[in-house]
């Protein structure tokens, strides 16, 4: 397992992954390998690496409005670094990345960091190993859907082709596992990527499940989605019209 050695040169925060043996043997030379280094953008003065939160914390002197009379008056800033460390580990030792990610699985920073990791992987063509890591965790579908909703729809075919089975497959798995909120968020992706007949089945299946679990809010959300898309899509317009007719 590698350790992270951090330093700040006055303008940027950097870290290197290095084993203890290599560091003791090579000192600063062990940090020189570019493939084992990363940089974290931090528009504040870093003071601490909050490892348990996967974030770097510091103070924003500019926001203090002038000379400070005490640290308590300075706004505290934080930025996640967990995704950057994992991306670096994935390029050097995937097994280490999995062990390190597992340490954060039940922490609040986990899902946001994993979504950021997937977002970066889409930009830098590193999807296969990133998805292998994410697939090791129960929140895989949640992370995929949430991350997909933050990127342009043009990136969806590449993402879901790499996952396999398409957006409808992810939707069905969410429904089967009772992750109805994630399934609802996936509806837009299904509606955009899949044929109208598939989208119709998914919408009706989610409505049925929401009714079965007496989740009124979810039923309302799905109906709002139908109403919003009905104006531009004949398939959802037909579903919405049938549902309105049956309600009367």
Q: Strand count, sense and closure of the main sheet?
A: 3 strands, antiparallel
Category from helices, strands and their pairing: alpha+beta
N to C succession of SSEs: EEHEEEEHHHHHHHHHHH
Q: What is the straight-line distance between the termini?
A: 64 Å
The helix fraction, in percent, is 55-70%
Strand tally: 6
Shape: elongated
| Unreliable stretches covering 5 or more consecutive residues | none
Q: Note the beta-strand portion.
A: 5-15%
Q: Count the DSSP helices.
A: 12
Compute the CA-based radius of gyration: 23 Å
Structure description:
The chain is of the alpha+beta class and 248 residues long. Helix content is 55%, strand content 13%. It is built from 12 helices and 6 strands. It has a 3-stranded antiparallel sheet. A hairpin with a 4-residue loop joins strand 4 (45-50) and strand 5 (55-59). Helix 2 (82-92) crosses helix 4, helix 9 packs parallel to helix 11 (216-230) and helix 10 runs antiparallel to helix 11 (216-230). The longest helix has 17 residues, at 196-212. The radius of gyration is 23 Å and the shape is elongated. The model has no long low-confidence stretch (mean pLDDT 84).
């Amino acid at each position: 397992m590698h350790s992270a050695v951090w330093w700040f040169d006055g303008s940027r925060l950097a870290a290197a992954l290095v084993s203890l043996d290599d560091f003791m043997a090579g000192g600063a030379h062990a940090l020189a390998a570019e493939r084992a280094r990363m940089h974290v953008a931090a528009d504040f003065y870093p003071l601490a690496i909050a490892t348990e939160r996967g974030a770097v914390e510091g103070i924003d002197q500019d926001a203090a409005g002038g000379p400070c009379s005490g640290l308590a008056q300075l706004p505290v800033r934080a930025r996640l670094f967990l995704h950057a460390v994992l991306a670096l580990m994935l390029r050097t030792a995937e097994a280490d990345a999995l062990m390190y990610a597992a340490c954060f699985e039940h922490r609040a920073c986990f899902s946001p960091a994993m979504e950021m990791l997937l977002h970066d992987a889409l930009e830098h063509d590193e999807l296969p190993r990133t998805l292998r890591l994410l697939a090791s965790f129960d929140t895989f579908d949640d992370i995929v859907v949430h991350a997909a909703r933050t990127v342009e729809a043009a990136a969806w075919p590449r993402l879901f082709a790499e996952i396999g089975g398409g957006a409808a497959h992810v939707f069905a798995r969410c429904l089967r596992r009772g992750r109805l909120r994630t399934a609802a968020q996936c509806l837009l992706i299904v509606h955009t990527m899949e044929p109208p007949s598939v989208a119709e089945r998914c919408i009706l299946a989610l409505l049925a499940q929401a009714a079965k679990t007496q989740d009124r809010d979810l039923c309302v959300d799905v109906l709002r989605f139908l109403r919003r898309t009905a104006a531009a899509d004949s398939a959802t317009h037909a579903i919405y019209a049938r549902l309105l007719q049956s309600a009367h």
